[in-house]
Amino acid sequence: MSRKNVFYAQSGGVTSVINASACGVIETARKHRSSIGKVYAGRNGIIGALREDLIDTSKESATAIRGLASTPAGAFGSCRHKLKGLEESRAEYERLIAVFKAHNIGYFFYNGGGDSADTCLKVSQLSETMGYPLQAIHIPKTIDNDLPLTDCCPGFGSVAKYIAISTREAALDVASMCETSTKVFILEAMGRHAGWIAASAGLAAEQDGDAPHIILFPEIAFNREKFLARVRRTVKRHGYCVIVASEGAQYKDGTFLAESGHKDAFGHSQLGGLAPTLAQMVKDELGYKYHWAVADYLQRSARHIASRTDVEQAYGLGEAAVEMALQGKNAIMPCIVRGKGKRYRWSIGEAPLDQVANREKKMPRNYITRDGFGITEAAREYLAPLIVGEAYPEYRNGLPRYVRLKNIAVEKKLKATFKL
Description:
- The protein is built from 12 helices and 15 strands.
- The protein is of the alpha/beta class.
- α1 packs parallel to α11 (308-326).
């Protein structure tokens, strides 16, 4: 019997460490040449499978693949293409199986968030229905840190580190200018329904009075009067106020402060503009001079200050996915398990996909202070280990040296094309 090939794809918003998971998959597969054939990557995620646009990673050197571990973004391209239910989009799922069959693919590794877990589960179910042997394993990835059944999500630790560092550095700047200039600085962070990223800014504060002075969470209903009163009180006491706001901050009725009216491919509301909205509110009501910034893509692509813990976990989960597949496991997600005790330890466990798909893990209420504007000691104990350690990339001429793969396409075998 011929060795089965691997299909690996990256899905959704990329991170500074998603390529570390890819590195873990490819390097581990290469160690098992007696059991695994080639590793094919989907060009631009699952779209690559639908279009039969596969990348042959065997054409890349060991050095290039190793370089993925320190390169941000998605080396093979990602996408926000949602596969709907099996009955509604059966043609798409059948196309996937046809492509896998044509290229002798027996292992399906989908690297993404909650929607990707759902897709991975459906592919597994259809392959069983159609009688095509395929082991589908989801590799977790999301900066939002909102996947259930895993202690944390690869990508989050590095974003948390970026936000905490940026908050501390910006606060020093504002503090030095507040006497005659800017008194309020607002940093908008990602996080549609869960405030994990914004919460990580709280790690920047080490003693009373340190920034951030206000954190806005999606989990806590926004109260305009309460917010403005806190800004006024903070400026009066410290001379300035630093605010870190999650893009998903919302009113009591669930309306986002930064609702744009548009939806993405997954049906999620497109957000943006929270920082200027808050800044204008402060200007109109309090008259303070302000500055604001939107971390946006910068927070998720900052590989130059990635968390070593995050990099190691991302690689470890990619490696574990292959090992689990070789053990015959299917429809699961390798996950991070936190050890007990004061010293941070982690190991890799597994979670069934039907308990991961389309579920969100929000911040526990006991992680947010009673007033709703900060993080508790419990949150600090959870967050702090995730940003520990540096894993600097190689530098050349003062800039990080990142890998660019050749991404050579595999010859197509199907006559029919597929229209998306």
